[in-house]
Amino acid sequence: MSEAYQVIARRWRPKQFTELVGQDHIVRTLSNAIDQDRIAHAYLFVGPRGTGKTTTARLFAKSLNWEDGPSIETAESTEICDAIMRGECLDVIEIDGASNNGVDQVRDIRNECAYAPAQCRFKIYIIDEVHMLSPQAWNALLKTLEEPPAHVKFIFATTNADKVLRTVLSRCQRFEFRAITTETIAEKLTTICETEGIDASPDALDIIAHIAEGGMRDAQSTLDQLITFCGKTIGKDDVLEAYGIVDPDTITTLADTLLASDYKGLLDTVAKVADDGRDLYRLLCDLRDHFRERMVEAVRTAGDDSGTDAINRILTVLHEGEGGVQGGLSQLVNLEATLLKALEHGKARAIDSLIKDITALSKDLPPAEAPKKKLITPSPEPAPEPATTPAYEAKPEPKAPLSVEEPPAPQPPPEEQAVAEAASEPQDYEPEANLGEEVPIPPPEMEPTPPEPVTKRATQEEIQQRVDALP
């Protein structure tokens, strides 16, 4: 019986850190940690699928445990290295966090940590999809994770670090794995094809790298499938046919019809794509990426975003319509509605851009020398003169109340006048009212005035005494 076939993704799995592509910052940090003897007890590898998290964990475990280690460069093939890369080493335990997420499994790990490694330098636990562990399982592992034995190392890998407890994040060194660029993936695929004897066109490899969306494993799996589909020769049309991808030239034509507001051309192109059985959701995503590239190129050329208003509005509509096209009842109907809406928004212009254009045009116009207008202010109207009316019709103004003058009293002789002046001086006693004195009554049309206080008339003897006392 012939040996079982091994897919490209496994055969081309990196066996040295130098073969790991797209993660140079990770390789540099781990190399320095080994060279400086600053190896932590817990690591957390975070990143998208197929970017090398589990592979890096195996390479790091091999660098720590191989016979002449720790060293970032290991031998090509030794017993321990081969066992670690195959996942068969007793001291490098790989655990699937999705299926071993209970408290009992974590308690077993905690109990096994007390035992020394069987054949290696360190006992290393590699837990994949660690965000699937339950909070109870994490709580059971926290104390061991914070202060593990000296011979135990933990390496966690996850695609969703937001679900990992913060108490766990604070106990680990976190490494961010980046999505691999399309150019890097295409170069790696070219190397694989040359080694495997596959004749693949550069356009086909570029499309495969674009489909992978930053994952090297996805690109290698796609290439393996296309080799099975096409044989030793892979062309651009083969990739488009196998995965239902729209031709990039068709994407460009569709973008031009959107910007030109060509309703008929837009609907005809979409109908042709649907009749060919292409993936409409992939069409929308490719159209979005195409407009994004146009916008970036326009900004780089002009130095500002003045000419990207229509593209920005189209991108906004395409982004909003992704959910409806992917999960709607009819992809074709939702796609046509989304593209027509994007066309309408592309024709519109924002108020801000219109004001900016008008302002720019007004600066180029010559200044208008219009005659200055005089400001005419209304003069105040003269007050009307009072009309002369007969005396009997004029209303008399209110006057002060009249005072009744009494006839002058006869002047007394000088001696009696001196006595009267003495009587007008303030007295040291309270005089009694003279009830017999007559008080003048005001006329009826006048308001009555309060009567003045009446003082007691001094007797003749008192007056004489005061007169005699005068100097």
- The arrangement of helices and strands along the chain is HHEHHEHEHEHEHEHHEHHHHHHHHH
Low-confidence stretches: 388-394, 399-407, 426-437
Please report the number of helical segments. 19
Q: How many strands appear in the DSSP assignment?
A: 7
Q: CA-to-CA gap between the ends? A: 165 Å
Shape summary: flat
Structure classification: alpha/beta
Radius of gyration: 53 Å
| Average pLDDT, all residues | 81
Q: Going across the major beta sheet, what is the strand order?
A: 2-3-4-1-5
Major sheet summary line:
5 strands, parallel
- The fraction of residues assigned to DSSP E strands is 5-15%
Question: Which percent bin holds the helix content?
Answer: 40-55%
Description of the structure:
The chain is an alpha/beta fold and 471 residues long. It contains 19 helices and seven strands. The chain has a five-stranded parallel β-sheet, with helices on one face. A two-stranded parallel ribbon has the order 6-7. α5 runs parallel beside α6 and α9 crosses α10 (216-230). It is flat and about 160 Å long.
Report a brief summary of the structure:
With 471 residues, this protein is an alpha/beta fold.
